[in-house]
Design a protein that fits this description.
single chain; 168 residues; alpha/beta; Glutaredoxin; five-stranded mixed beta sheet; two-stranded antiparallel ribbon; 5 helices; globular
């Protein structure tokens, strides 16, 4: 595979419709696998605050529910979005529940985790709320372990740097 961008992938919205990640061309993205019954679940509120802080700046949070770690995502479909909205006030995109690690991982997550495919990062998710930072060209540029809070200065500084980079 020669394409080192996420724009080659299509994901599924909760309503079953497909969404091309190329729809996010020229945007900075934080892609995160989420779960409603995880000790890191309060990060949903921080992810929303991050989305809000950079709203209007071509920054988006894309959330992919996963039940891969400790069975901590028992919810399905719209119940996941309702949980996020009601309990944490989220307004970012939440997609269909997927596998994010191992042999049956979704192709997007296989790409995100494999340096041979993405050219930059070799870091499969170790738990829920593993975060991948994507630049305006759709390239994986960094990752953050679950214990790195979304509102950390480390993440914010990298987002600002990518948002200020207008070179395409």
């Amino acid at each position: 595979m020669t394409d080192k961008s996420i724009y080659q992938f299509t994901v599924h919205c909760l309503n079953g419709r497909e969404r091309k990640l190329s729809d996010f061309r020229d945007k900075v993205l934080l892609i995160v696998n989420i779960a409603s019954e995880c000790g890191f679940t309060p990060q949903l509120k921080e992810l929303e605050a991050l989305r809000y802080d950079f709203s209007g700046d071509d920054f988006y949070v894309l959330a992919f529910p996963s039940n891969d770690f400790g069975g901590q995502e028992p919810l399905e479909g719209d119940s996941i979005v309702s949980f996020c909205e009601v309990n944490y006030g989220t307004h970012f995109d939440v997609f269909q529940k997927i596998r994010v690690r191992g042999q049956y991982a979704d192709p997007l997550y296989k790409f995100l985790a494999d340096k041979k495919q993405n050219g930059q990062v070799g870091a499969p998710p170790r738990w829920n709320f593993h975060k991948y930072l994507i630049n305006r060209q759709g390239e994986v540029v960094d990752f953050f372990y679950p214990f790195t809070k979304p509102n950390s200065s480390r993440i914010k500084k990298k987002i600002v740097k990518l948002l200020n980079d207008k070179s395409l």
